[in-house]
Amino acid sequence: MTDSTAIATRQQFDLSPQTFEQALTFSNYLADSDMVPKDFKGKPGNCLVAIQWGMEIGLKPLQAMQNIAVINGRPSLWGDAVIALVRSSSLCEYVIEEDDGFAATCRVKRRGEPEQYRTFSMDDAKAAGLLGKAGPWTQYPKRMRQMRARAFAVRDVFPDVLKGLPVAEEVQDMPTERHMGDVEQVQRAAPAAPQPAYTPEQFAQLLPTWRNAIAARKATADSVIGKIKTKGTLTAEQEAAIRAPFDQPATQAEPVTDVQPKGEPEAMAEKTVGERMHNAATLDALFEAADLIGEVADPEARARLTQYFDERKFALESE
């Protein structure tokens, strides 16, 4: 083998893995090495992810280990690697960085597009809460302004080159996520028990009142049915009976007739109480009239008045 062949062979040596098994083996070696950043030391999983990220953006494995940082749980690129990737791309015509002592400016031009620029000033740093912050912003403010202007420019103009990776200097200044406590487990309320069904007798007894309220235009069939369903269930046939067309306009239910027993003039007459409930225009007036039911002597009359109260109450609530 000639010397030139040996030199060519040495130049072709590359540790880039070609299979997943090779990548796993290489990651284990890297994690055991003392020449990797602390985020990768003893963490072959982190090494494997960094290698994959590097391959996607065009960095060799060892370049990826040195230029991809894990900050606040996010992989990011150091600023010098960012500008190196952009300048090496065929899409980039130039990157020019300037600083006037107060604001940094980064001018970039993508092939086939007009020049764009981004700036980052001390006023921007103050607004972001970075001015006077302990660390690089106090020691190297010019460098930090440069990194911020660069990050804004290249991320906006060359997102396809960076594959969405953020810039490390920018991520370092972001507040870490705070633990807000355990998620409260909200128990679902048990489903409400089904409403009891109206018996045929109950339905037949109440149907005229419902129909009269609809006929008198004090309620619609839908509102009547909706209110009924809050108290009980209806069959399809019962709903149809409520909605059935009227041959003749119906009138409001008449008050119960007087069946006051003779010989008890001191007792409240059924007719008097019924008329008061019939003439009640509000629920308050109806309840006031209903207070007189207890003064009616005849138990059967009180039962009729109580039923009539329920009918009037429903009619007034439906208005």
Task: Describe the protein.
By secondary structure, this protein is mainly α. 50% of the residues lie in helices and 9% in strands. The strands form 2 sheets. A 3-stranded antiparallel sheet has the order 3-4-5.
Structure in a nutshell:
Helix content is 50%, strand content 9%. It is mostly helical and 319 residues long.
Q: What structural class should be given to the helix and strand makeup? A: mainly alpha
Low-confidence stretches: 247-266
Radius of gyration: 43 Å
Question: Helix content range of the residues, please?
Answer: 40-55%
Task: Tell me the number of strands.
Answer: 5
Morphology call: elongated
| Distance N to C terminus | 106 Å
Beta-strand percent range? 5-15%
Largest sheet descriptor: 3 strands, antiparallel
